[in-house]
Design a protein that fits this description.
Radius of gyration of chain B: 23 Å
Largest sheet of chain A: none
Oligomer: heterodimer
Number of strands of chain A: 0
Helix content of chain B: 25-40%
Shape of chain B: globular
Largest interface: A-B, 53 and 57 residues
Structural class of chain A: mainly alpha
Helix content of chain A: over 70%
Number of helices of chain B: 17
Chain lengths: 328, 536
């Protein structure tokens, strides 16, 4: 347990600096982009010089960059994410509204790609070089090579337009007044296609990694020893070969969760899912600096937390991890 | 389908066809409207402010025009091209110093309070004039609004203001909001800006960000038996391909504002149960324009500008980029405008040889590599068609020895580059013609506009004669004389080419056959839909 606590403490201290660098870096990057929130806004309205000046003043864009950054950091210190200019609402509310959707989509897709990917990986890796191994490896690579939006569109055309089994998009039926289990079932039906589109693409990653790890493990002495002891084949595959191949997959899980946050922009747009990815895209297009910073901050915290969990899982799976840190 | 072919070919093809098309809706949809039902349609953007009195833009009207009404709406066959809404009549004084509106009796706000002339006076003086994007220009000389009784509002101007301009501005600029909800606190921060309260046929019910807007029937609406629909739901579909799929899957019944891309229309028109409609946007015409930076010495020469005009094959642009859903342009007023358009202007036929000759004449001979000079070309990113035309223009210019380099930006960056930084030589823009040249058209060529004003002359063009003409037209009260001045304006612009008008286009709706009373006015998508109905 002390091992876990040490890892936790070290990571938390480091995280604060990471977050600070992320915030300042993103702020400067967005400032460097030509045009500000008012420029983005008047695209759809037009307006005379007086109106534009009025807007810049109201949205605080007539202040210098440094003042705005200082104000933002000061507010952040008080856990205030500020006000979104594109939504004219507190950023905390805007993000909290979308976060559950993104977590649900991302979590389900990760679970799908990790669960199915490693299961198929074990199936393929149990007999490296066999026909089923080749078939699965090539099939998963083909899926990996497919662009996400295209897979999404094909799924829509097939399952929603032609067969009409599943809804085309959105997160739940509009104004259906469903509650409880009925609502959960409704959301689940809406998630089938986006989760599949997102999950199937990353499936190959886990499958290939699991398979490669197992192919490697088969050649190890301890596997030979296990076979010599006369253990059942099923037990050798699961407890000896697969367990040893699992560690890199956990690392991958941590890395990929960060990627999923970004990768879901496309899927969220195609399936009209109101998640963080789309929000981030709108924030960039609208030059809504505080909103984008809020999203980046929340995502960064998520990534940090997920990686922390991964490290703790790692320590649990492999007793050697963190032992050095704890004794230091 | 015959309707569709007629209007496709004749789209924007002049006032004669406009009149013909007005007759069609009554023939096409002669059924008795049914009551009830929920209309679900695609929305591709979520405006940050839903108050049409502050933000007069199509994105806002698309949703808010069902909730908040204007004094009058555009009409195919009404007097002055208008149909009464909150105002029953409008009468401009001969001296141009006042306009008298008689208001509708017995109208109630959605919260039950009565609508009176005080609401009109408040909206005009506190919102349209000081805050509204377009009203700040049109109502700049509005000094007071007298309300002798609850149903009369008299607009008083400090300077003579043409009543034709005020009339033409009514459909877009005159949304009336309730004084009793807006008189306390800052108007810009009012919660009703995001949950509007009006007098319209539908009430604002709810908004789920990123998902949908829902409007419900106003049972106390002044229109007899109206509205027919129980609910209107705008489903937010950010991906343009999904609107077509959603229509096919019968999840939505309508996609307006060309939510279905032009390239998909041919396929979707063959799907049983769906119809493609090109009408109902006559009052929302967009113009494809080449904006010119006259600070470049080559472009300051009218011969070079004429050469560029001759280098563009407008028919090709209409056929290939707009797939026929557009019309070629002759000048700064679109062909489908019933009041101001004149065809009697200098024209520039597609003629590469002539363009080359003009450039030679101007003294820009081809160098050894065949190039005369290089330019920076910034196509506006707001529409697929503006980007595609940018690519076409680059090729067209290459044919006459002008080497154009395309600079792609996103919307915010494009606005800043062109209208604030003037960091362009040529730009492709889509200005909107709003029914009167004084609202947003003359500003495209007038000089003396401060930096940073979007969709205005930021190319440094200065023509004293044209400036004088614009001022004179803005002060001319007689409708016929004023109209003639704008015809003169079109001639001068076409002759001197401060910018080059290439094409005019509008939007397309795709709907299920069950949706009735579609496209029955020239601003249908942004009108109140009180008579829209669903056959079960």
């Amino acid at each position: 347990m002390t091992r876990a606590l040490t890892i936790l403490r070290r990571r938390l201290v480091g995280s604060v600096f990471v977050l600070l660098i992320v915030v300042i870096g993103s702020f400067l990057l967005l400032e460097a982009a030509p045009g500000d929130a008012v420029d983005a806004y008047i695209v759809s309205t037009g307006g005379d010089a007086g109106m534009i000046e009025l807007l810049r003043h109201r949205w605080g864009l007539d202040q210098s960059e440094l003042t705005r950054l200082a104000n933002y950091l000061w507010a952040l210190l008080h856990f205030d994410l500020g006000q979104s200019v594109t939504f004219s609402r507190p950023i905390r509310d805007v993000i909290l509204e979308r976060l559950p959707t993104t977590l649900l989509l991302m979590g389900s897709a990760t679970a799908l790609s990790f669960g199915l990917g490693s299961a198929l990986g074990i199936y393929a890796g149990a007999a490296p070089g066999s026909l089923r191994d080749r078939f699965l490896s090539i099939g998963s690579l083909a899926l990996y090579a497919v662009p996400g939006f295209w897979l999404g569109l094909v799924l829509i055309v097939f399952f929603a337009v032609d067969l009409r089994w599943l809804p085309i998009g959105g997160i739940e039926t509009i104004a259906s007044a469903k509650t409880g289990l009925a609502r959960a079932a409704d959301i689940a039906t809406h998630l089938v296609l986006p989760v599949s589109a997102l999950g199937f693409i990353y499936l190959a990653l886990y499958l290939r990694m699991m398979r490669a790890g197992m192919a490697e493990a088969w050649r190890q002495d301890f596997v030979l020893a296990a076979r010599a002891r006369g253990l059942p084949r099923r037990r050798i595959v699961l407890a000896h070969v697969a367990r040893n191949a699992l560690l890199p997959l956990v690392t991958m899980l941590g890395l990929q969760s960060a990627q999923m946050l970004g990768g879901s922009v496309v899927i969220e747009s195609v399936f009209a899912v109101p998640g963080l990815g789309r929000l981030a895209q709108e924030a960039v297009a609208g030059r809504d600096t505080p909103l984008l910073l809020g999203i980046i901050l929340v995502s960064a915290v998520l990534v940090i937390v997920i990686n922390l969990l991964v490290d703790l899982t790692y320590a649990f799976l492999d007793p050697r991890v963190g032992a050095g840190e704890a004794s230091a | 389908m015959s309707e569709f072919t007629i209007s496709r070919r004749g789209l924007l093809a002049g006032s004669a066809l406009l009149l013909a098309s007005t007759a069609l809706p009554t023939i096409g949809f002669a059924q008795t409207p049914k009551k009830g039902g929920r209309l679900v349609l695609a929305a591709d953007s979520e405006p940050r402010n839903l108050n049409p009195a502050i933000v007069a833009s199509n994105g806002v009207f698309f949703i808010s025009s069902k909730i908040v009404e204007t004094l009058a709406e555009a009409s195919f066959d009404g007097k002055d091209g208008l149909e009464p809404r909150l105002a029953l009549s409008w009468e401009g004084a001969a001296d141009g110093l006042s306009v008298t509106f008689k208001l509708r009796d017995g109208v109630k706000w959605h919260d039950g309070k009565p609508f009176t002339s005080a609401d009109v006076a408040f909206s005009a003086l506190q919102i349209w004039k000081p805050l509204q994007n377009l009203g700040r220009t049109v109502f700049k000389d509005l000094e007071a609004v007298d309300t002798p009784d609850e149903h009369t509002a008299i607009f008083k101007f400090v300077k003579p203001t043409p009543s034709q301009l005020i009339r033409n501005a009514l459909p877009a600029l005159s949304s009336v909001v309730p004084q009793h909800l807006y008189e306390l606190g800052k108007i810009e921060d009012n919660p009703a800006n995001n949950a509007p309260v009006g007098t319209g046929p539908f009430k604002f019910a709810e908004y789920k960000a990123g998902q949908y807007y829902r409007l419900t029937r106003n049972g106390a609406y002044w229109g007899k038996d109206e509205p027919y629909l129980d609910e209107i739901v705008y489903q937010v579909l950010p991906d343009r391909t999904s609107a077509a799929s959603a229509l096919e899957a019968e999840e939505i019944q309508l996609a307006a504002f060309s939510a279905v891309p032009l390239a998909d229309l041919d396929r979707i028109s063959k799907v049983p149960g769906l119809k493609v409609i090109t009408k109902g946007y006559e009052g929302l015409t967009y113009q494809l324009v080449v904006e010119i930076n006259h600070r470049r010495k080559e472009l300051a020469d009218v011969k070079v500008r004429q050469a560029i005009a001759h280098a563009i094959d407008k028919d090709f642009v209409v056929k290939t980029i707009f797939l026929g859903y557009a019309a070629t342009a002759t000048g700064p007023v679109p062909k489908n405008d019933p009041q101001f358009y004149t065809a009697d202007v200098p024209t520039y036929a597609f003629d590469v040889a002539k363009a080359n000759a003009l450039l030679d004449e101007a003294g820009y001979k081809r160098a050894d590599d065949g190039k005369r000079f290089a330019l920076k070309l910034l196509p506006a990113p707001y529409f697929n068609e503006t980007k595609q035309f940018g690519d076409y223009l680059r090729q067209a210019l290459a044919a006459v020895g002008i080497d154009a380099e395309i600079v792609n930006n996103d919307s915010a960056a494009h606005i800043k580059a062109v209208y604030t930084d003037h960091a362009f030589d040529l730009a492709v823009g889509p200005p909107v013609f709003r029914g009167d040249p004084a609202i947003s058209t003359t500003i495209l060529v007038q000089s003396g506009i401060p930096d940073g004003v979007p969709f205005s002359n930021q190319g440094g063009y200065k023509n004293a004669e044209l400036d004088a003409l614009i001022v004179k037209a803005s002060e001319t009260l007689d409708t016929a004389a004023r109209t003639d001045l704008y015809k003169e304006f079109q001639k001068k612009v076409a002759a001197d080419l401060p910018l080059i008008n290439v094409a005019e286009w509008s939007f397309i709706s795709v709907a299920r056959d069950t949706v009735g009373n579609i496209a029955n006015n020239p601003r249908w998508a942004v009108s109140n839909w009180a008579d829209t109905y669903l056959e079960s």
